[in-house]
């Protein structure tokens, strides 16, 4: 009809790619095609009309998050006479109802990543892999770092829980491995690292984390607690990493390792293979990274302890034995994730394997109880986490025979 304003019927029909007969018919019509015919009504009764407003809508209001398929199954259970073919119709009807009456949803803005801009850190539980060290199950985490743009990643085996020491060690290993630092570093809210700390300790931990990022000229950021999609670029890759380790363990034929170093080398090799798949993109992002500082910063916590008369010291509720010559001395202890370096003055004395208390397990159990609205039972906590007296080893002392003393006395007389 637009062409008809300046052309003849034949020319307008040719330009609109319709036949001349159709053009003449349209030219004679007084009303638009959509107005010339009455809307076609339903050819069969609406099977949802008796139940949608009376049964489906109350379900949607009572449980806003319920899935349409669950509503469909419930309607079939209540009304066996309904046909199974109503599923798509019901889903469309529910979708239309929610568009008008549903609750507001969380808005997620698509992120545009730039090379050299953002690096992510997070921890993920890897105990489910079933790895054993010298026959003992290994309860461990992975510290996981990832550059968002290129996909470069680094993983480090962590023996304890989430802590600043583990974060500092793993993050620095990752940055020195890739050869540069991004502009921003994002972690989660560090709630696990803050757990069981008093106010002063929390302030100190925050200050040390800011200093760590400042040393590498990174701006620290944190995602909101409980909002996993803000860290989605690394949350989603946790599963891929653990699946890759699991597959490699199956190919290896055994999950047993002689020592922790062998397992860490095994994980490093898997991560290296994954990075090789993004080699060109990683090389491209390296040119956008900031230069590394001249040296690493501290990735340990330093604590001063005093050796007691029992020949040891207590640190983080774990007792460590040292040579008796150190009784009464004040020692500087550098606390790493998997070891303790012990110094007297500026002299390094020894390295001790770090022991583990039950703080993390106790905190998780208390959080579970409180979240359920209950109060912890002290007796039950002692039973669960305290030593069982019936399982303590029985020490049998074999007394020496008095005849031995008489022999010694006799020897002395003879001398």
The fraction of residues in strands falls at 15-25%
CATH architecture of the largest domain: 2-Layer Sandwich
Largest sheet: 5 strands, mixed
Our measurement of the CA-to-CA distance between the termini, rounded to an integer number of angstroms, reads 137 Å
The gross shape turns out to be elongated
Structural class: alpha+beta
CATH topology-level name of the largest domain: Nucleotidyltransferase, domain 5
Instruction: Tell me the radius of gyration.
Output: 35 Å
Explain this structure to me?
With 415 residues, the protein is α+β, with helices and mostly antiparallel strands. It folds into 4 domains: 3-36, no CATH class; 52-101, no CATH class; 118-286, Ribonuclease H-like superfamily/Ribonuclease H (Nucleotidyltransferase, domain 5, 2-Layer Sandwich); 300-415, no CATH class. Helices cover 42% and strands 16% of the residues. It has a 5-stranded mixed β-sheet with strand order 5-4-1-6-7, with helices on both faces. The protein has a 4-stranded antiparallel β-sheet with strand order 9-12-13-14, with no helix packed on it. The protein has a 3-stranded mixed β-sheet with strand order 3-2-8. A hairpin with a 5-residue loop joins strand 4 (141-147) and strand 5. The protein is elongated, with a radius of gyration of 35 Å. The protein starts with 8 loop residues before the first helix and ends with a helix. The relative contact order is 0.08.
């Amino acid at each position: 009809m637009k062409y008809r304003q300046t052309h003849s019927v034949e020319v307008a029909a040719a330009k609109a790619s319709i036949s001349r007969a159709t053009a003449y018919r349209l030219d004679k019509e007084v009303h638009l095609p959509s107005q010339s015919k009455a809307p076609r009504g339903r050819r069969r009764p609406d099977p949802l009309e008796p139940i949608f407003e009376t049964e489906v809508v109350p379900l949607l209001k009572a449980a806003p998050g319920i899935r349409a398929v669950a509503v469909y199954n419930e309607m079939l259970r209540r009304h066996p006479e309904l046909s199974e073919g109503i599923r798509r119709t019901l889903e469309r009807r529910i979708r239309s109802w929610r568009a008008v009456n549903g609750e507001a949803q969380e808005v997620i803005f698509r992120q545009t990543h730039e090379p050299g801009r953002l690096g992510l850190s997070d921890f993920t539980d890897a105990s489910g892999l079933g790895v054993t060290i010298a026959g003992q199950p290994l309860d461990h985490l992975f510290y996981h770092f990832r550059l968002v743009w290129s996909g470069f990643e680094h993983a480090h085996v962590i023996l304890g829980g989430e802590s600043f020491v583990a974060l500092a060690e793993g993050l620095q290993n990752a940055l020195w491995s890739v050869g540069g630092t991004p502009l921003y570093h994002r972690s989660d809210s560090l709630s696990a690292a803050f757990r069981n700390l008093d106010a002063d300790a929390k302030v100190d931990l925050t200050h040390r984390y800011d200093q760590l990022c400042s040393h590498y000229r990174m701006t620290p950021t944190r995602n909101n607690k409980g909002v996993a999609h803000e860290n989605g670029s690394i949350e989603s890759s946790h599963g891929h990493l653990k699946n890759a380790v699991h597959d490699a363990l199956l190919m290896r034929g055994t999950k047993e390792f002689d020592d922790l170093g062998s397992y860490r080398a095994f994980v490093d090799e898997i991560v290296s293979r994954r990075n090789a798949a993004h080699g060109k993109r990683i090389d491209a992002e390296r040119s956008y990274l900031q230069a590394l500082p001249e040296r690493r910063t501290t990735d340990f916590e330093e604590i001063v302890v005093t050796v007691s008369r029992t020949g040891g010291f207590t640190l983080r509720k774990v007792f460590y034995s040292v040579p008796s010559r150190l009784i009464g001395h004040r020692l500087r202890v550098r606390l790493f994730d998997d070891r303790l370096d012990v110094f007297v003055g500026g002299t390094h004395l020894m390295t001790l394997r770090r022991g583990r208390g039950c703080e993390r397990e106790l905190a998780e159990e208390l959080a579970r109880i409180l979240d359920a609205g209950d109060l912890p039972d002290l007796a039950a906590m002692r039973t669960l986490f305290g030593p069982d007296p019936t399982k303590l080893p029985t020490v049998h002392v074999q007394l020496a025979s008095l005849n031995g003393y008489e022999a010694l006395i006799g020897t002395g007389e003879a001398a």
